[in-house]
């Protein structure tokens, strides 16, 4: 856990700029976009819990992102009482063009590694991504029980 902050602070940016709409999104707003998908919806309560904020705080953040045209708020298909969130085309664009991780900073960090170290780092990240996906699937399965 002590390694993550070093990587985060070396590679993240404070604001994400949307040049098409001439607006800046905070790193918190960009982080919300990073947690959402265009096709697979995410529950507002689950997202709030995951990001360590209250449902009302997350709701306010989603309101701003929805007004900006980045997020669609709807009803969960399995439980109409739950709010589900998906990215709009603009949200997908922002997420793919610029994330809270600055590609230039990431390249600079990776350039400090040898070719073999970069290969090992990417392999390690792939393992973490796979384990994370499995953990999320298990968590999602438990939440619908």
Q: Can you say what the CATH homologous superfamily of the domain at 14-101 is?
A: Winged helix-like DNA-binding domain superfamily/Winged helix DNA-binding domain
Tell me the name of the CATH class of the domain at 14-101.
Mainly Alpha
Instruction: Return the string of H and E elements.
Output: HEEHEHHEEHHH
Structural class: alpha+beta
Number of strands: 5
- Provide the helix percentage: 55-70%
What overall form do the CA principal axes indicate? globular
Provide the gyration radius in Å.
Answer: 17 Å
Note the main sheet. Answer: 3 strands, antiparallel
Number of helices: 7
- How much β-strand is present in the residues? 5-15%
Query: What average pLDDT do the residues reach?
Result: 87
Beginning-to-end CA distance, first to last residue = 31 Å
CATH architecture call of the domain at 14-101:
Orthogonal Bundle
What would the CATH topology of the domain at 14-101 be? Arc Repressor Mutant, subunit A
State the low-pLDDT regions, or none. none
Arrangement of strands in the largest sheet: 3-5-4
């Amino acid at each position: 856990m002590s390694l993550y902050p070093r990587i985060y602070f070396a590679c993240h940016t404070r604001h994400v700029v949307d040049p098409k709409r001439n607006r800046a999104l905070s790193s918190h707003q960009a982080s919300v976009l990073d947690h959402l998908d265009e096709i697979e919806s995410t529950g507002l309560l689950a997202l709030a819990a995951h990001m360590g904020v209250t449902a009302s705080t997350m709701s306010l953040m989603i309101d701003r992102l929805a007004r900006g045209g980045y997020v669609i708020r709807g009803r969960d298909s399995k439980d109409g009482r739950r709010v589900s969130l998906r990215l709009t085309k603009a949200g997908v664009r922002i997420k793919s063009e610029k994330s809270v991780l600055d590609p230039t900073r990431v390249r600079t960090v990776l350039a400090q590694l040898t070719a073999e170290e970069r290969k090992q780092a990417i392999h390690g990240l792939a393992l973490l991504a796979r384990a994370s996906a499995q953990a999320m699937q298990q968590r999602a399965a438990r939440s619908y029980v």
